[in-house]
């Protein structure tokens, strides 16, 4: 899709400023350095093609997954061609086949958290659907992810490493294709780990599947026990019915949301900030404000992020950044 002239203009404007006052310039380096909160990340959708390739390679070496093609050949090379319709089959037919034992689940979780940390994310709410496979139960799946998150959060707690840390929280997803009792099991698992790293439940999955009204008891139980609720809604035309809307609103969700997964669409959060800056003519201070607004709607306290944002803003002030708005 051709970029709008406005975006091009902004990009030229941004790059022409780079040589003068580096810290005031909203460019790739700035948006990466900006401490950010990622509040809509699906674990399986955030796995890079390279990590999937590594997972695939490990399995093939063991004589498994021999019918699967190399992910580097299968993942769409032009990310702009992926849409909500072509998106779900990639997961159903492919990614989940590579993520069905503890070893691969943990390897993928490690890589995803490391990728977000490298992109300057300081607070991450990672969503994942507890998935049953031949070798893992839903409980074992959550335990596997939970262990990796725990290791990262311990690392974050180290005083001297504060600057490099990323705080990670988990949101367990109820997939629309689940039976009501499976949704109850997800809530059980979320409640079991509430107080460690699990901060909420999510409703996700292929929007053309399932009947959300059947999840009401599970969702209300989660909320009554203090879990937060985030919901995917109206992702494709035609499924956003009045009944679905009134059901979801009756749950009083904390957040409604929909984003494009970085693993599939290839646009990291820093790039989303850059695109916003280019298309809406935002300056450095505006972007700090955007990150602060995300920090204000996290499901848990985001101390590391707030500290980092304060420091980042101090650095901007020292550089005497003109507030562009
Ligand atoms: Zn989503």
From TrEMBL:
One of its GO terms (biological process) is adenosine catabolic process. It catalyses: N(6)-methyl-AMP + H2O + H(+) = IMP + methylamine. Keywords: Hydrolase, Metal-binding, Nucleotide metabolism, Zinc. Its cofactor is Zn(2+). Residues 35-258 form the Adenosine deaminase domain. The keyword Chaperone does not apply. GO terms for molecular function: adenosine deaminase activity; metal ion binding. Signal peptide: none annotated. Gene3D superfamilies: Metal-dependent hydrolases. The keyword Repeat does not apply. Belongs to the metallo-dependent hydrolases superfamily. Adenosine and AMP deaminases family. This is Adenosine deaminase domain-containing protein.
């Amino acid at each position: 899709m051709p970029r709008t002239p406005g975006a091009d203009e902004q990009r030229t404007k941004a790059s022409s400023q780079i040589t003068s006052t580096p810290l005031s310039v909203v460019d790739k380096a700035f948006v990466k350095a900006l401490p950010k909160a990622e509040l809509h990340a699906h674990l399986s959708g955030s796995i890079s093609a390279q990590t999937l390739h590594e997972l695939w390679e490990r399995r093939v070496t063991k004589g498994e997954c021999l019918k699967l093609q190399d992910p580097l050949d299968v993942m769409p090379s032009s990310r702009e061609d992926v849409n909500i319709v072509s998106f779900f089959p990639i997961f159903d037919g492919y990614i989940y086949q590579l993520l069905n034992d503890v070893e691969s689940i943990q390897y993928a979780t490690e890589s995803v958290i490391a990728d977000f940390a490298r992109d300057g994310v300081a607070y991450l709410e990672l969503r994942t659907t507890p998935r049953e496979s031949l070798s893992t139960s839903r409980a074992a799946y959550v335990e596997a992810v939970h262990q990796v998150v725990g290791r990262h959060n311990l690392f974050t707690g180290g005083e001297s490493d504060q600057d490099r840390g990323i705080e990670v929280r988990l949101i367990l997803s109820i997939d629309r294709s689940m039976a009501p009792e499976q949704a109850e099991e997800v809530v059980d698992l979320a409640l079991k780990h509430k107080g460690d790293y699990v901060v909420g439940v999510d409703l996700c999955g292929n929007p053309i599947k399932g009947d959300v009204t059947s999840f009401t008891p599970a969702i209300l139980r989660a909320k009554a026990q203090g879990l937060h609720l985030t919901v995917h809604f109206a992702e494709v035309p035609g499924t956003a019915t009045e009944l679905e809307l009134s059901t979801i609103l009756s749950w009083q969700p904390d957040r409604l949301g929909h984003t494009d997964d970085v693993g599939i669409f290839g646009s990291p959060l820093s790039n989303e900030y850059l695109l916003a800056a280019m298309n809406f003519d935002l300056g450095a201070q505006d972007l700090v404000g955007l990150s602060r607004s995300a920090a204000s709607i996290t499901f848990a306290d985001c101390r590391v992020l707030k500290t980092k944002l304060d420091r980042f803003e101090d650095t901007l002030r020292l550089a005497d950044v003109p507030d562009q708005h």
